[in-house]
Design brief:
Length: 293
C-alpha cells in the first residue's frame, strides 16, 4: 500500500454477532485494505468477540479491543467506544481515519474508489458512500435522507489533518448526532464534506417496530434541539419527511421531542459558535429552497 493510501478504521460493536461477520468480510475483500482496524467490543454478551477473534487470527490488521466496565447504554456509549479505539492508534502512521458501523457491507472497490476521491480533491476532509437501507422484502433502498453534502456516521472517513482539526475525537452527545457535529465542525474549519452516491453501502440491520421508531423520532427531536437546529429549519425538514415511515406520526414525534426540550429549558450540548455556524448553513438552505419554489 502506498503511503497516500494508508487508512485506519474503528468499529464500535455491541452484540453485533448477527451482522459483524458480513462487515468483516467486506473489509477483508477490499482491494486496498486498512493498515489497522480496531474493533471495540463494548461489553458484548453474544458471539461478537468470538467472531472478531476468529478473523483477527487470520488477518493481522484486525485487532479486537474489549471494554469490560459496565456503563449506561446511552447514545454517548458508542462514541466513548470509538474514542477508545482511536486512542489505540496514537502511534500509528496513517493518512485517513474512519468510523465503520458493524452492520454494513460494500463492494471490494469501495475504499479504493473513496480514496481516489480524496486524491482528486485536496480540500475534501470528510467523505463516504451513500447508505442503502434494507427493506422488508429483503432488497435495499437508497436512504431518503442521503445528501451529497453530508456523510452518514456509519461510513465517515476523515483526512487525518481534518480529523485533528476537529479535535481528533468524536464528541459524546446525550441524544446522538456526533456525525452532524463532526461534519459541521469540518466545514467550520474550511474542509469540504461529500458523500458519493455511486459508492453504495448496504445497511443490514432491520428497521425497528413502529413503536420503537416513534420513540426514536422523539429522541431525534431532542437531538436536533441539543445541536441548536434552527426551529424553522426543523419544521420544514419534518414536513418533507411525512412520506417516510412512520410517516406523519414520526414527524410529529420528532417535533414533540424538539418542543419538549425547549419547554424543559435544556442546555444545548454544543458551543455557541457551532450553533451560529449551523444556523447560518440552514438559513442558506432555506433561502435556496424558497427561491426554487
Amino acid at each position: 500500500m502506498n503511503v497516500a493510501d494508508s487508512y485506519v478504521l474503528i468499529t464500535a460493536a455491541y452484540n453485533e454477532g448477527k451482522f459483524i461477520e458480513g462487515t468483516i468480510a467486506s473489509v477483508i475483500s477490499q482491494e486496498l485494505r486498512p493498515a489497522r482496524w480496531i474493533i471495540v467490543s463494548d461489553t458484548s454478551t453474544d458471539d461478537t468477540d468470538a467472531i472478531v477473534t476468529k478473523y483477527a487470527a487470520a488477518n493481522s490488521f484486525i485487532q479486537l479491543y474489549r471494554l469490560t466496565e459496565n456503563h449506561p447504554r446511552n447514545f454517548a456509549a458508542q462514541v466513548h467506544a470509538i474514542n477508545a479505539g482511536i486512542g489505540l492508534l496514537q502511534d500509528e502512521q496513517y493518512d485517513f481515519i474512519g468510523n465503520l458501523d458493524a452492520d454494513i457491507k460494500f463492494d471490494p472497490s469501495y475504499f479504493r474508489l473513496l480514496l481516489d476521491k480524496f486524491r482528486q480533491n485536496p480540500k475534501l476532509g470528510l467523505g463516504g458512500g451513500a447508505i442503502h437501507d434494507r427493506c422488508s422484502d429483503g432488497g435495499f433502498r437508497n436512504r431518503r435522507t442521503n445528501r451529497v453534502t453530508s456523510v452518514a456516521h456509519a461510513v465517515q472517513l476523515f483526512r487525518r489533518e481534518c480529523f485533528m482539526a476537529v479535535g481528533g475525537l468524536y464528541r459524546p452527545l446525550p441524544y446522538g448526532g456526533p456525525d452532524t457535529y463532526a461534519e459541521t465542525e469540518a466545514r467550520m474549519k474550511g474542509w469540504q464534506v461529500a458523500s458519493f452516491p455511486e459508492l453504495r453501502v448496504f445497511h443490514h440491520r432491520p428497521t425497528g417496530s413502529a413503536g420503537g421508531m416513534v420513540r426514536s423520532c422523539f429522541r431525534q427531536g431532542r437531538m436536533d434541539f441539543s445541536l441548536g437546529v434552527l426551529p424553522l429549519f426543523e419544521v420544514v425538514k419534518l414536513g418533507s419527511r411525512i412520506r417516510e415511515k412512520p410517516y406523519l406520526v414520526g414527524s410529529m414525534a420528532r417535533f414533540a421531542g424538539f418542543v419538549y426540550s425547549y419547554l424543559c429549558g435544556e442546555k444545548r450540548a454544543v458551543p455557541d459558535e457551532f450553533i451560529t455556524y449551523l444556523r447560518q448553513e440552514q438559513r442558506r438552505r432555506l433561502l435556496g429552497l424558497f427561491r426554487i419554489q
